Predict the structure.
Amino acid sequence: MSRPLPIHPDEAASRARGALLGLAVGDALGGPVEFMTAGEIRAKHGVLREMVGGGWLRLKPGQITDDTEMSLCVARAIIAARGWDLTGIAGQFASWLKTRPLDVGDTCRRGIRNFMLKGQLETPPNQWDAGNGALMRMVPVGLFTLGDDALLRRCAVEQAHITHNHALSDVACICYGRLLHRAIAASSKTRIRREVDSLSTDFPTFGFEPYRGLSTGYVVDTFQTVCHYFFRGRDFEECVAGAVNQGGDADTTGAIIGGLAGAYYGLESIPRRWLKRLDKRLVSELNELATRLVALSSLQAP
C-alpha cells in the first residue's frame, strides 16, 4: 500500500538529484583506489579528498565506473517505460555490456549474458552470489518507489535477481531502499538508524558495531562500511571520503554511501569541486532522470 511521505515533492526531487549525483561522485572518487588497502591509500594520498584518476582501471579524474553505469541503465529503462519494466532493465544491461565497458563484475556479466542468450530474467539462487552488484544500482529503484514500500520490496528483489539471487543481497537492497526513502523524507539519522537496526535484528550478520574495517565486494562488508561512515559522518564529504579511504571495493562503497548521503544532506551539500570533475552531459542526465523518477513515483500520485 502506498503511504505519503512527509515532504514536499519539490524538495523530494532536489534530494533525489542529490542521491543520483552523489552516487556518481562517490563512484568517481573511489574508482582510482579500488582494491587498495587503507594503508596503501594513506601512503600514496594521505587522506584522499580529490578526484585524482588513475588506479588499476587508469581512470581519468572524475570518470565513473560500472556502479553509475548500471544505475543509469535502471533509470533509463524505468523512464522509457514510464513505469517498472524488468525486461527493459535487462535489455539496458545487455546493451551496456555490448559496449565492452571498462569494468563489469563477473556475477553481473554472467547474469546479463544469461538474459542475452536465454532471455532469463532471474538467475538461479547461488550461495556465492552475495556480492554488492545489485545493491550498487539501487538508487533509481529507491527514487521510483518513493511512497510505496511494497513496490520497493518487489522491484528491489526483481532487479537484483537479474544478476544476484541471494537472501543477503535481497535484504540489503530492500533496507537500502528504505534508507533512501527516509533520507529523502528528511528523517533524522536516529530514525534512519532504526531501519538498519531492524535489518540486523533479523540478520545479525549485518550488525556494524563494532566496525570490523572490511570493505570487500561481499554485500555484508559493503553495507557495514556504508553504515559505519554514514552514521558517524557530519556532512556529505566526510561520509563519502571516509568510506572511500577505507579502500577495498572503494568505487562501490563510495557510490552507495554517496547516494544515501546525497539524499540525506541534499544536492547543495555535494562539493562543487567534485561535481565539476564529472562529465557535464552525465550531470545533466542524472539531474533529469532523478526529477522524472520522482515524478513517476507514488509521491506524485493524485
Remarks:
- The longest helix spans residues 9-30.
- The chain has one domain: 9-300.
- Residues 25 and 274 are 7 Å apart (CA to CA).
